[in-house]
Specification:
five-stranded mixed sheet, Nucleotidyltransferase, domain 5, homodimer, Arc Repressor Mutant, subunit A, 21% strand, alpha/beta
């Protein structure tokens, strides 16, 4: 609890710590002595102030950033994005590693994550053993509590405990969550959701993700997998989705769905590499190629329909569309938002705010790192001598 | 608070009341004396027990059922259903009054509700002035907190404070809510939801309604209108809905939608009265008329799709399908539930329970009465001399 208060305040003298927590000064002194001895916090001289003049120089306590180090990792379709944070949450390094497209066996993906994480820590002359935890965000149906991945477009296996596989492969405690949940957590912690207790984050890139914050917490549902949006159905017996079902929203708005349609009408030359096909289609749509516009605009209308359904069902304060610039532009964001507004139940009150937050994979990785940091804080407070496995 | 505790216990002696509330015996005695004087509670001799033998006969306190009387009213497409409860929640009378189909001006509907409510209280020789409150459930988009009906299939007007209109027309305080929310409340209070903190009630009859209970409370969303299901879209630019938009779930599964399709292929003779057309269609489907089956089965598949989306988004513990027997049978309920199960994201855990709760309009009316009773309890506790307006 003291550790958490110190973290919250940044820097705080012992006497204030006693006041805000209601713990006696003597006890605060004893516990902080332990925390200092274990290297979790440090003393820093207080800036010159009134206290000095009274002849009693005081010290502030702060988290010792060097006590622990965590990595946040976002696995996307064609890359692994990583960020390294110290125990204070200060960024130490970042890295983006390209990866071949497509689902992989879990052992292969774990190995890729290990290689990428090693490259990350090497940037500051460290090794994997110096990490106290890694947070990993993955698209798909993930039970964060027990570490199970039920299904992910990044994995060939399903219903596996990928958290344990990662922990073993890297020799570092791993914490797993759905990637959109981690974006929602990032928005809540240091993004546009800081002032809101209830909001929805929708991400669209190679897939469509959603994170719901209700009452300041990630909504996870009864079975722990949280809210699924990309595989809600927008058309009975509709287009084939990579999840194996028909008519999912993703099967109309995700990159692969657009590329699939574009290829079928010859809009994309066969020699364009897979990872650049979406760009070719979007460029054609922007240049006014009629067939390309048709494809992209239907995707936008389907996305608007999905958003309108979320508004009808949840009536949230705020919807944050998060993801990279290009990904939203291609759906003509303003048209989508307008179409959403006309498709919701019309009442005599303003519809929820929809804001677009263009941040890249590294911010997702930061959300993952913040997620891991929470666990490491908790564990450090319980057992200060806790080290990487 | 004492009143609420007495209600919760049914019967309770003063000394226990002091214990469970932590209020001193002296204060309990003073306050309960006031409640007795105001006729809100009564004393009843305790059943023979150990106390008697010690020579000190004690009395229990209980709510005085005769202190107040409330009516619960459900407005449906072709009828008004009413239930009369006393202050204890005991049923005094019930009534079902037929009504001509279709949206009405708010003054006309208020007048119909007044006439029906008068007929109800007359059943036990009372008048409207004897009512302390009426609870009214209405299909559509209703803000329960401020009494606004933004849109209802029963009303020609939109964005009006129908609660105030009702209160004035009847001269009785009215409490308004979306009808499906009242069913959810009924399920929570005395139905299948008693043991569950999180569940969804879906109703299907002339329209499709939904009530969501999260954390033991009705989920109402940011703008107060709660969760909307019937007008979520299941088809881009789909069938025309009576709300004026296209592709709503209701436009595929509600009575009017089925009758509309049946009429267009000549399945229903022009001389069949409007209110019997759905029965004609359902009978034909049951008898195996191919076109009738086609119509009804697509409705079932669309309903399954909508349910699957709810499961994907909310991952609830339990879904209760509530409504009258016929209404569910016609969608081949087991087939619908099976189709829902194959359309949700498949994980290695059992899907949520789906139970069908066949109860009629009178149980909805009971939910409405319970809703009104809550307000009357609260007001009586604040101002024991509160009377009908």
């Amino acid at each position: 609890m003291l550790l958490r208060e110190i973290e919250r305040h940044g820097r705080i003298p012992r006497i204030d710590l006693s006041e805000v927590t209601g713990i006696s000064r003597a006890t605060v002194t004893t516990i902080t002595a332990d925390l200092l001895r274990d290297g979790l916090i440090q003393e820093i001289p207080r800036e010159a102030d009134a206290d000095m003049r009274r002849g009693r120089p005081r010290v502030d306590l702060k988290i010792d950033g060097s006590a622990h180090m965590v990595a946040g990792i976002k696995v996307s379709d064609t890359s692994i994005s990583l960020m390294l944070l110290d125990f204070e949450g200060t960024q130490l390094a970042e890295l983006e590693v390209p990866m071949d497209k497509g689902a992989k066996p879990s052992a292969v993906l774990a190995e890729r994550i290990k290689e990428a994480t090693t490259s990350l820590v090497v940037l500051i002359g460290k090794s994997l053993a110096d990490l106290s935890g890694i947070g990993v965000g993955l698209a798909g149906v993930v039970d964060a509590q027990n570490g199970t991945v039920y299904w992910s477009p990044s994995l060939q296996d399903s219903n596996i405990n990928f958290r344990d596989i990662l922990s073993e492969t890297l020799g570092v405690p791993a914490y797993l969550d759905n990637d959109a949940n981690l974006v929602a957590m990032a928005e809540k912690t240091f993004g546009l959701g800081r002032e809101h207790s209830d909001f929805i984050v929708v991400t669209i890139e190679s897939g469509v993700g959603m994170g719901i914050v209700l009452n300041n917490q990630i909504y996870r549902g009864t079975r722990g997998c949280g809210a699924e949006f990309g595989h809600t159905k927008v058309q009975l017996e509709g287009a084939m989705c990579r999840c194996g079902q028909r008519g999912c929203l993703e099967a109309y708005v995700a990159d692969y769905a657009l590329v699939r349609e574009a290829a079928s009408v010859g809009l994309i030359d066969a020699d364009v590499p897979a990872e650049h096909r979406i760009e070719v289609l979007l460029a054609a749509a922007k240049n006014g190629t009629p067939m390309a516009k048709k494809i992209v605009q239907r995707a936008g209308r389907m996305f608007a329909l999905g958003l309108a359904n979320l508004v009808n069902i949840f009536d949230p304060e705020l919807i944050i569309l998060s993801g990279e610039q290009m990904q939203f532009d291609h759906l003509f964001a303003q048209e989508v938002i307008e179409a959403m507004r006309t498709s919701i139940v019309q009442i005599d009150k303003a519809p929820p705010d929809v804001v677009i937050h263009k941040w890249g994979n590294l911010m997702w990785a930061r959300g993952a790192a913040a997620y891991a940091l929470d666990f490491v804080h908790e564990m450090a407070a319980k057992d200060p001598n806790h080290d990487a496995v």
